[in-house]
Specification:
The chain is of the alpha+beta class. It has three domains: about 1-70, no CATH class; about 100-180, no CATH class; about 250-590, Methylamine Dehydrogenase, Chain H, CATH 2.130.10. It contains nine helices and 33 strands. The radius of gyration is 46 Å and the shape is elongated. It is found in: Nucleus. Pfam families: ANAPC4_WD40, WD40. InterPro entries: Apc4-like_WD40_dom (IPR024977), PRPF17 (IPR032847), WD40/YVTN_repeat-like_dom_sf (IPR015943), WD40_PAC1 (IPR020472), WD40_repeat_CS (IPR019775), WD40_repeat_dom_sf (IPR036322), WD40_rpt (IPR001680). It comes from Malassezia brasiliensis.
Length: about 600
């Protein structure tokens, strides 16, 4: 009622309030239904005044005529329009706005009228047309919904049915009589069962929805979608089981020695640098002139999948370490029988990189199972297992160190570990893509390349980039090698050329070595021990050799059937190269 009182127009405030005297005792109401109907409403209750006026008998000579203070529906709507500003910015009430779901028309209506019309539409099936709210109720489009019901009910709203004149109240009582009983809550089924608010109306005809024509059941498209969902759930379950198997496999590292005895007649293991060869394996690498290899003299077989990385034993090169996508790491003899000495097992996914420390007593393996492992070269024992949250794309020891190494990862970081402390000691986080290579130019400086097509230089143990090298035409460089004189960096670029950078100033040289194809493969690039030749594998199974000084292509050696992704020059030989390819073979060329 406060909302209705506040909704009065200015003319109502100016008009004097008419006092309503109590009705005479001998003048009963025309349609007295209950005691509540004969109560005298307070003077400010405009709605009850309207009800009193509707039930009052015709005025006599002594009756007091009560004038309605509450405006009619049309008057309220007209008064509401007076609230619209008249500064020229108002819009027409009938203006139509088109939206994605239909049209929207602007109108002004009090909250009471809106709730009243909403309730009327829900119960009686019709309501006043908001577009014609100001017009007369006799207009053709004055109502929306069931217009026949609106005509039969005289356009009465729910408020008028509950508190209107005698005819509207009679219609309300008749409507209530048509409602079925709620039933007994203690009866579940049968006669008198509880229906509650779901009880219908007498004479109501409920037409069940006709079933759609065609076969009953899921359509072929629905069946296909269900099968696809089931297959996806099965794959996710299998992936989870594989993950559990990987977790169980961790910590079960082992190695297999393939020889008859770990020691020779003098008690030496394969770690001893042999002295019974024609080559002095303890000399200075690169002291002899090198030549281009031409013939394959030995093939190592044992891996069942692609070779991903090969490393020679530091200084001497008498042992060969290989990592493969078959999850195995193998140690091979180079100078004697050329057989497999030991197999290291512990990774549950393919090997990404392997690396010896400075003296070769230990080595690191990084796998696609997101674990870096530290192994003892002689005994085959796994000394440490360092789980990551990403794949370690490369591992490299600090020059001259046997304990500190860096790992470039697939989550854009370079991690620095100390195996003595068994913890992470530093993080380098400036790259915007997966880190592919980490290369030391000296003991205190290193460079890194990434999928973000840039090269960055760092001071060791300081996680701040000292130089950022990038060019709009520069591509990703997945392999980098330092020249024997430590003056140049050769970087394999994914646009089928090898770029050269100064190892001191990091400026790019005008020299570029072309003539090979490495599309889609991270083919390793290397220098000959004397620095006269630059070599690289390619995607066609060749090993390509260039003259370092002239920049000309010298030879394309067909080495494997699949891409040659890794190779290494023997440090004390004049023309021997070990190659590893995606065909799972290791070959020695001379």
């Amino acid at each position: 009622m406060d909302a209705l009182n506040a909704y009065r127009s200015d003319s109502e405030d100016e008009a004097p309030r008419v006092a309503v005297p109590p009705p005479a005792q001998d003048a009963p109401a025309a349609n007295d239904e209950s005691d509540s109907d004969s109560d005298v409403p307070p003077p400010d209750d405009t709605f009850q005044l309207k009800r009193q006026e509707a039930r009052a008998p015709p005025p006599s000579s002594t009756a007091v005529v009560v004038q309605s203070v509450a405006p009619s529906v049309e008057e309220r709507a007209v008064d509401a329009t007076q609230l619209i500003p008249s500064d020229g910015t108002q819009q027409s009430l009938s203006r139509v706005r088109h939206t994605l779901s239909g049209t929207v028309e602007e109108t002004t209506m009090s909250d009471f009228d809106f709730r009243n019309q909403q309730r009327t539409f829900e119960m009686l099936g019709y309501a006043r047309n908001p577009s014609e709210f100001v017009a007369s109720s006799k207009a053709p489009n004055a109502y929306v919904g069931d217009k026949h019901a609106a005509q039969a009910m005289g356009g009465a709203t729910m408020a008028e049915l509950r508190g209107g004149n005698a005819s509207t109240r009679a219609a309300s009582r008749a409507m209530k009589k048509r409602r079925k009983a709620n039933g007994d809550a203690s009866i579940v089924d049968g006669a008198g069962a509880y229906l509650g608010p779901w009880a219908g109306w007498e004479g109501e005809q409920v037409t069940p929805e006709a079933p759609a024509p065609g076969p009953i059941g899921p359509t072929p498209a629905e069946l296909a979608a269900a099968e696809a969902g089931a297959q996806q759930r099965k794959q996710e379950h299998a992936k989870l089981e594989r993950r559990r198997a990987m977790d169980l496999a961790r910590g079960t590292e082992k190695s297999i020695f393939h020889g008859t005895s770990m020691y020779d007649y003098q008690g030496r293991t394969y770690m001893h640098i042999p002295t019974d060869t024609d080559t002095n394996l303890r000399g200075e690498p690169g002291s002899q002139q090198c030549f281009i290899p031409q013939t394959c003299i030995h093939t190592w077989t044992g891996h069942t999948k692609a070779i991903s990385s090969v490393r020679l034993f530091p200084q001497s090169g008498h042992l060969l370490l290989s990592g493969s996508m078959d999850t195995k790491v193998k140690l091979w003899d180079v100078y004697h029988e050329g057989n497999c000495l030991r197999t290291f097992l512990g990774h549950v996914k393919g090997i990404r990189d392997v690396q010896f420390n400075a003296d070769g007593t230990q080595f690191l393996t990084s796998g696609y199972d997101e674990v870096i492992k530290l192994w003892d070269t002689e005994t085959g024992v796994c000394l440490q297992s360092m789980p990551l949250d990403c794949v370690g794309n490369c591992v490299v020891y600090r020059p001259g160190s046997t304990d500190v190494f860096l790992a470039g990862t697939s989550d854009k970081r370079i991690l620095q570990y100390d195996v003595r402390a068994k913890q992470l000691t530093q993080e380098y986080k400036e790259h915007q893509g997966a880190v592919n290579t980490v290369t030391f130019t000296d003991r205190d400086h290193f460079v890194s390349t990434s999928d973000d097509k840039s090269m960055r230089t760092w001071d060791f143990d300081i996680p701040v980039v000292t130089k950022y090298i990038a060019d709009p035409h520069m591509q990703s460089m997945p392999a980098v090698a330092l020249s024997p004189d430590e003056k140049w960096l050769a970087a394999q670029s994914m646009d089928n050329q090898v770029l050269v950078f100064n190892a001191d100033t990091y400026k790019q040289s005008s020299r570029a070595f072309k003539g090979h194809s490495v599309t889609g493969f991270a083919c390793q690039v290397n220098f000959s021990p004397d620095g006269h030749f630059l070599s690289s594998g390619d995607s066609q199974g060749n090993v390509v050799f260039w003259d370092w000084d002239k920049g000309s292509l010298i030879k394309r050696l067909p080495a494997h059937k699949d891409a040659v992704v890794c190779h290494a020059w023997l440090p004390h030989e004049t023309s021997k190269v070990v190659t590893g390819a995606w065909d799972g073979l290791l070959k020695l060329w001379t």
